[in-house]
Amino acid sequence: MSEYSERLLTETPHKSAAQRLRLVVFIIAPILAILFQVYVPRFLPFLAYLELPLLLTIHFALLRREPVSALFYGCIIGLVQDSLSSKPLGMYGIVKTLVGYFAASVSMRFAIETPVITFILSFFFYFFHQFFYWVLARALLGQMVNFDPQQTLVFGVLNAAVALPLFHVLDKFKVAQ
Amino acid sequence: MESFLSRYRNLTVLLIVIAGQLLLLAYQVRTNRDVRLIRVWTVSTVTPMAQVLEAVRQNTFGLVENYFVLLGVREENQKLRRELGQQKIQNHFLRTELSTADRAKALSAFAQETPSKTIAARIIGDGTGPNSATVFVDRGSGSGIERGMAVITPDGIVGKVVESYPAASLVQLITDPAFAAGVVSQKNHIHGTLKGLGHSQAIVDYVQNEEKVDVGEWFYTSGYDRVFPRGFPVGQASVVRNGRSVKEIYIRPSGLVGGLEEVLIVLRGVHQAIPDNAPSSTAMYIAPAPPDSGGDARPAGQPPVLKTEADKIRGEYQAIGAWENHPYGALSSKVPDFNVKAPAAALPQTVNPASKPGEPARTGERPNGIEAKKEGAKPKPVATKVNTGATSGPLLVTDPTDADVTDERALQSTLSAATREAKPQASAPARIPPAHARGAQTRDRGAAAAAKPKSAPKPPAIPTPDQR
Questions:
Q1: Which of A61, B83, B117, B218 could bridge to A70 as Cys pair (CB 3.0-4.6 Å)?
Q2: What is the distance between the alpha carbons of residues B312 and B10, in angstroms, rounded to a whole number?
Q3: Closest approach of chain A CAs to the CA of B180, in angstroms?
Q4: Shortest Cα–Cα distance, A71 to chain B (Å)
Q5: Cβ of B50 and A38 within 8 Å?
Q6: Which residues lie closer than 8 Å to B299 by C-beta, 6 or more apart?
Q7: Nearest residue to B373 (alpha-carbon basis) of B343, B339, B409, B411
Q8: What's the pLDDT band for B2 if we cut at 50, 70, 90?
Q9: Is residue A18 within 8 Å of A64, Cβ to Cβ?
Q10: What phi and psi values does residue B23 have, to the nearest 5 degrees?
Q11: For residue A72, is it within any domain?
């Protein structure tokens, strides 16, 4: 490993810009997001594509710029989602752990304040999330979960579009570290 | 080592967390989905909030929705009242529709009807995950719900309880790919295994190609899976074709048609026989026969009155005998003259279709010139004959074992029918006849006035078209 790459892994150029959410929002927002995912599609089925817990994980990771806290955040949200599903615990947990880690790692190295970057990252991590879940379901559980790439791409765009105003609202609750 | 861990701290933590979750995952798969404490905690945290939201929604939006529904019903009823004739029938029909549309009542009626012990539950949320075919219901272990209990609706089976929490339960729908249940076809009792496909249909597996299953044939639970009691409807076969080794039978689950709101959880199942007829999807209200539809009206619970040609002839002869004061079965009585045509009042309604109930009985004339009795002006009710004579009277009852009917309920039925016939104006409720019948009724009123009992109240005079 070169000196430059080591410095990339150890040093965080955007660390100074790391921020945090208010504690209340930090706790309430994931619960509301999971409640939304459980309850709202019953009456508005066309909103079932929204993966708000994932968007919150991405937002937290981009905001905190700390891979460890981001991966734990994604892990907890994923495990809660697993608890509300009929699948074994850990499927969403693993996927969201990876999303939190990679999102935080990306935010440490790139300026992610612009909406375009936020849109691209949200789109990418949604696709990554769905694809990796499909891989895990096939590899670990042996289940045939439907995965339609075209549909996933469309849903990724929609989730990324929702992520922009959502992140904007959540940014109003952040506190400078 | 420490420097290594500090340098790759993030990656190390990531690997530890992933490994921990993989171990957790592997442990669960091996033990076949035991309930974990974290599931109990999270479900106990989330489901009460969903219940509160559902209660708020029902008390706000539900009230507004019910208000508009009631407005529509009221306007519809007012419009129906302005119409003539069939308005009341339509009104009854709508009320029946409304009552049958109430799912809670339907569930309650079904729960009372079915021999299995059930408990009603409301769906409060969907399970997470792609291809999710699981739902949460608001009944849990606190209500006696346990894993493996069947979940049904009056239309068919819905799924089974896969997890039971204190205040909620997770129900796996029959469309879930992991679902399986034993089913049997209605006609030929072909056994198979129902499996979910992840979408709106399910498949019946393990049915040999040699077996005969028709498209549209109903499938019922067989009871051999020890989850669903035998005899509950599953659905109709939409596609039946031969496969490589077994038939491919696709089922439209009847329990999931029209969406799910309330369900029944079978606490203690009772096996039932496979019905011979296909289950009706919706309950249909069948109105009782109108009282003036030809004499078939009888109080509920009384034996049916059969009308055959033999009954008509028998009734006619008994009417003649009653008119000539001949008690059938008596030794010292003269044989009645059956060639005489009995007056219309003495004849049963089915013998003389021209005489309508509500119209006064007209006096008959004997063909051989004998004057009819003057009782025609005030016809003697046939029921009097029936009541006084044990075997006389126009009793339109066919008994396959004995011609003489001794059933007291049948006698009472005939008595009440004859009483209605004798006093039609006094007992009939005030109703407006149809427009096309009003003229005929007015024309017949002159003839009816002669035969009407004097004690009956006089109806208001309606001018005939000629008088106008």
A1: A61
A2: 99
A3: 15
A4: 7
A5: yes
A6: B413, B416
A7: B343
A8: low
A9: yes
A10: -65, -45
A11: yes
CATH number at residue A72: 1.10.1760
Domain B103-287 has CATH 2.40.10.340: yes
Tell me whether residue B46 is exposed, middle or buried, using C-beta atoms within 10 angstroms of its C-beta: 0 to 12, 13 to 18, 19 or more: buried
pLDDT band at B386 (very low <50, low <70, confident <90, very high): very low
Residue A5 located in a structural domain: no
- Confidence (pLDDT) at B249: 93
Cβ partners under 8 Å of residue B232, min gap 6 = B150, B152, B156, B157, B220, B221, B272
Check B131 against A145: CB less than 8 A apart. Answer: yes
How do the domains of chain B map onto residue ranges?
1-32, 103-287, 309-428
Structural domain includes residue A7:
no
Collect all residues of chain B within an 8 Å Cβ-Cβ radius of residue A84: 42-43, 46, 127-128
| Residues in B touching A82 (Cβ below 8 Å) | 128
Q: Residue B385: its pLDDT value, please?
A: 39
Element (H, E) at A73: helix A67-83
Query: What type of residue sits at position B57?
Result: R
CA distances from B275 to A135, B108, B182, B187, B236 (A): 46, 21, 17, 10, 14
Tell me whether residue A3 is in a domain. Answer: no
* Neighbouring-strand partners of residue B249: B204, B240
Which positions in chain A touch B197 (Cβ < 8 Å)?
A: none
Residue B347 and residue B311: Cα distance in Å, rounded?
Answer: 12
Q: CA dihedral defined by B267, B268, B271, B272, rounded to 10 degrees?
A: -60
- Under an 8 A CB cutoff, do B126 and A41 touch? yes
Residue B235 C-alpha from the chain's centroid: 19
Cross-chain CB nearest to A91 (options B25, B50, B136): B25
Task: Indicate the residue type of A89.
Answer: L
CA distance A47 to chain B (A): 13
**Contact (CB<8Å) A94/B136:** no
Residue of chain B whose Cα is closest to the Cα of A146:
B131
Residue A18 pLDDT exceeds 50: yes
How many angstroms separate the CA atoms of B111 and B264, rounded? 8
Q: Structural domain of residue A65, as residue ranges?
A: 19-176
For chain A, how many structural domains are there in total?
Answer: 1
**Cα A28 to the chain's mean position, in Å?**
16
Q: What is the DSSP letter of B246?
A: B
Split at pLDDT 50, 70, 90, the class of B378 is very low
- The Cα–Cα gap between B150 and B172 comes to 10
